[in-house]
Amino acid sequence: MRIYLAIGDSIPGGDTHILSLETRGLLRVVGSAHTNENLLDKLSNAQPDVAIISNACAGSDPIRFLADVRTTLPELRVVFIGGNEDIFQSLIGMGIYDLLVANRLKLADIDERIFHPAVYVDVAHFLKVKPNQVATDRLRRNELVAFWSPTGGTGKSTMALNYALMRAGNVLLVDLDIQTPVLDLYSGFSGQRKDLYDLLVQEPLTPDGLRRFLYPLSSEIASHQLLPGLIDLNRFDAINIDHFKRLFGFITSRFDCVVVDINSCPFIDATYAALNAADTIYIVAINDYASLREAVRYHKYFTDNLMMPSEKFQLIINKYTEQGTDVTNITSGLPWPVTTVIPYSPLITASTCAGKPFVLSRDRSLRKTIDTIAQIAGQHTVRRKLFGNR
């Protein structure tokens, strides 16, 4: 593990402690700084896995500086040491969760942040419940979440896009919908499109190579990125399942959460690799008997034939019509729980029919749907601020 130290005098004995870890072969210190001068350039040149940055070294505007770090080095994990909690709420929205208060800091806290990949700091809990210590919400870091549907036209891409936007942390949305790879277009990108094929065939995959293919998922959230899909399907046969396995292994080590929008056909390499790699698979169905039964049939195939754990599947029912099949009756016999029901909205139905995913937060009438997706993403208040009061 490559560590960059920009801690100034905020940790008494911190330099010595971390250098002792290096001496024992536990990590490698690739640079240090005591001021903000050219710090972003130094981090870019050093390419560390983790940067430990104090409030003093972040400069006079630490929020702006750390936003620049997130934009320039999206895969970099940042441990931030602040003088107080005043700016923590802003930092958590940028995907910086390893937060420490200098005057409460123990050297063991640094060890925990460096070596425990499952630690997030829940700032709201920290401020409200346990003001005298760093409270942690233990969520799995480097989680891969897949959105899949047995048929097109269920709103799967809309769910994946908005789930990614509402997940906190350093998030990557991957477009693996082979038939309609349009998430780059519908998240606002208007330049020359990039083809995932060109990244898949790179040997080896590198952070710089990946960075050249990423788009901002939203201008409002610097920590969220989009990896576009396979634009030219004429080249699809030149890649295989090993390419996708290698890609997932590479990107999940660099983002807190990877969200994958995958193709409806489960028998192609991209979909099969994503389903296998995923920690959670959301099957999106509409409130229609045929759609739900198809979801049940494939769930049985995945668990019985492909030996995928049943517990990693969850069902989202997108109410495609206001009436439709009685969801309560039909779901009572399903082999796995319904995670949530997306409320009926003519806007979502029209989007689903047209195959045009869109950002839910841009319409006030969809507040119930926004809240529902936010709850799936595990966000109740923090992400809400990023979407304003629209």
What can you tell me about this protein's structure?
With 390 residues, the protein is an alpha/beta fold. The protein has 16 helices and 15 strands. It has helices spanning 14-23, 39-46, 62-72, 88-92, 107-115, 123-128, 156-166, 183-186, 196-200, 207-211, 241-252, 269-277, 289-304, 327-331, 346-354, 367-376, and strands at 2-6, 28-32, 50-54, 77-82, 98-101, 119-121, 136-138, 143-148, 171-176, 215-216, 224-227, 257-262, 280-286, 313-318, 338-342. Strand 1 (2-6), helix 1 (14-23) and strand 2 form a beta-alpha-beta unit. Helix 7 (156-166) packs across helix 16 (367-376) and helix 11 packs parallel to helix 12. The longest helix is centred in the last third of the chain and has 16 residues, at 289-304.
What's the short version?
The protein folds into two domains: 2-138, Rossmann fold; 143-387, Rossmann fold, CATH 3.40.50.300.
How would you describe this structure in keywords?
alpha/beta; Rossmann fold; disordered C terminus; five-stranded parallel sheet; 35% helix; 390 residues
Write the layout of secondary structure elements.
Elements: E1 2-6, H1 14-23, E2 28-32, H2 39-46, E3 50-54, H3 62-72, E4 77-82, H4 88-92, E5 98-101, H5 107-115, E6 119-121, H6 123-128, E7 136-138, E8 143-148, H7 156-166, E9 171-176, H8 183-186, H9 196-200, H10 207-211, E10 215-216, E11 224-227, H11 241-252, E12 257-262, H12 269-277, E13 280-286, H13 289-304, E14 313-318, H14 327-331, E15 338-342, H15 346-354, H16 367-376
Parallel strand pairs: 1-2, 1-3, 3-4, 4-5, 8-12, 8-13, 9-11, 9-12, 13-14, 14-15
Antiparallel strand pairs: 6-7, 10-11
Helix pairs in contact: 7-16, 11-12
